[in-house]
Design a protein that fits this description.
Helices cover 48% and strands 0% of the residues. It is mainly alpha-helical and 166 residues long. It is elongated, with a radius of gyration of 26 Å. About 4% of the residues have low confidence.
């Protein structure tokens, strides 16, 4: 019996363990000891199975959400979740194991697709324009009077009177 079987579907661990990439060596030595791969795999399986956010990962696993996310992406780049998805077509594996393999590989693929789309969506958001929205004595002391660019390309010396001007 596995120590994380009550929290995550650990029937895949015997199939996933040989597929994991070797950890990077530390030529300088030292550092914090590496968290066990089994605990990290259980934490990642929990996040994929429940659909919760990485930051909502329970502390019961003994793995920080940052470590779980980092290893998830590292193992995804190594092809672990794709290989587990291929296990769903293997007739030698038990039916629950095949079902978990298919469900987790689909969840991993969904997470990877949504993570790839985020930076573009974030870049499209408009940035706040503080000087346009706020005016007054305090802003003028910090930044000076704002110069207004005319449509013909010339610059006026001062800001035109607005609704907050006195």
């Amino acid at each position: 019996m596995n120590r994380f079987s009550w929290l995550a579907p650990m029937t895949l661990w015997p199939y996933a363990e040989p597929l994991l990439p070797n950890p990077a060596s530390r030529p300088q030595g030292g550092g914090t000891p590496r968290i066990q791969d089994e605990a990290t795999f259980a934490a990642i399986c929990y996040v994929l199975a429940t659909g919760c956010a990485w930051r909502e990962l329970p502390k019961t696993f003994g793995v920080s959400w940052q470590t779980a996310h980092r290893r998830f992406t590292h193992w995804a780049n190594a092809g672990l979740w794709t290989a587990l998805g291929e296990l769903s077509g293997d007739e030698t594996a038990e039916a629950p194991t095949r079902a978990w393999a298919e469900a987790l590989s689909e969840a991993a693929a969904t997470r990877l697709r949504s993570a790839g789309a985020r930076p573009a969506a974030a870049a499209e958001r408009p940035r706040p324009r503080i000087l346009r929205e706020f005016s007054g004595h305090f802003v003028e002391q910090l930044f000076g009077r704002r110069k207004v660019v005319k449509p013909d390309g010339g610059a006026a010396e001062t800001e035109p009177p607005g609704p907050n001007s006195s």
